[in-house]
Write a sequence for this structure.
């Protein structure tokens, strides 16, 4: 099965996008307000991060966002770090799609409705190969259409609290090689009090982030090429993590 | 290489990745590597790379989508050998 979609699935994704956009003036500012005032979170250098993201988005070609993963709310914090509610309402394609684990985020009808509206394509970890390929085809289609997509190339929250180069998820590499000219924006974002993985950042957390954009290539073909690309990304994230901790000393 | 030899070599490659060793002892061609042998899906690709090295073949992403059971794996290797 190649990463291509039938017309029905393409239409379904377009419908999901438009439903999300219809409700975006409600949920995008609400979530930002919740993070800012409800949880009291702050992101150091947020203006610089947002400027850099807007600059990279303005350049032609698909842009896949690949981030380190420490909490179940990382997707929200990263989206908030990269753009203001007003920016996302003006540039809805820049608001990243997500691929949450179905068991965590789409287990009830209410949650399924929420993730539908909030630009999510739920995945089932450990699913049959064809099911995984189907989900990859959906997100590859979105990426090719110029939609921002956020993935966590380690495949799960870092159990050691640090980026694990050996856990690079092959599917990320496959996705990139399936979308011609795909650039990768690596995002390293971490709360000052985030010593290891958890469900959510602590109240009042202060985050610090760094962005690094590149276009991965591989001399290998097939599965080995996809693995190579996935490892390049996680290796880059590990380097950003080293800089993060060096900068704190 | 005969199918049975290939199957034995595949089982050998699978062994360190299998959580349920007793299931491996009773494995047949219909045994699903993820569901029955409890191979970690994130490590599945390491098995594929080990198979590529062991049999000197190249497996495409599309071919990988069709591999679920030990029998699928053996058939794919036979078709490429």
């Amino acid at each position: 099965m190649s990463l291509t979609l039938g017309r029905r699935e393409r239409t379904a994704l377009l419908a999901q996008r438009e439903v999300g956009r219809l409700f975006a003036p409600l949920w995008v500012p609400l979530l930002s307000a919740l993070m800012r005032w409800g949880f009291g979170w702050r992101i150091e250098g947020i203006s610089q991060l947002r400027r850099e993201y807007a600059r990279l988005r303005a350049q032609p070609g698909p842009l896949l966002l690949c981030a380190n993963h420490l909490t179940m709310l990382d997707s929200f914090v990263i989206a908030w770090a990269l753009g203001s509610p007003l920016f996302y309402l003006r540039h809805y394609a820049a608001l990243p799609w997500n691929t949450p684990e179905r068991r965590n985020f789409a287990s009830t009808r209410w949650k399924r409705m929420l993730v539908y509206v909030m630009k999510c394509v739920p995945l089932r970890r450990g699913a049959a190969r064809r099911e995984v390929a189907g989900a990859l085809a959906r997100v590859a289609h979105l990426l090719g259409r110029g939609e921002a997509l956020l993935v966590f190339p380690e495949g799960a929250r870092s159990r050691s609290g640090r980026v694990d180069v050996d856990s690079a998820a092959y599917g990320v590499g496959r996705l990139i090689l399936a979308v011609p000219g795909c650039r990768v924006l690596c995002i390293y974002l971490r709360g000052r009090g985030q010593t290891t993985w958890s469900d959510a950042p602590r109240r009042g957390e202060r985050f610090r982030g760094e962005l690094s954009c590149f276009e991965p290539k591989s001399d290998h073909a097939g599965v080995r090429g996809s693995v190579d690309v996935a490892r390049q990304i996680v290796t880059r994230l590990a380097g950003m993590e080293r800089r993060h901790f060096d900068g704190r000393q | 290489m005969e199918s049975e030899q290939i199957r034995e070599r595949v089982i050998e490659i699978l062994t360190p990745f299998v959580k349920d060793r007793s299931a491996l002892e009773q494995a047949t061609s219909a045994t699903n590597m993820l569901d029955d042998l409890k191979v970690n899906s994130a490590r599945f690709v390491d098995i594929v790379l080990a198979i590529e090295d062991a049999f000197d073949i190249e497996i495409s992403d599309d071919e990988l989508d069709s591999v679920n059971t030990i029998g699928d794996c053996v058939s794919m290797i036979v078709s490429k050998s």
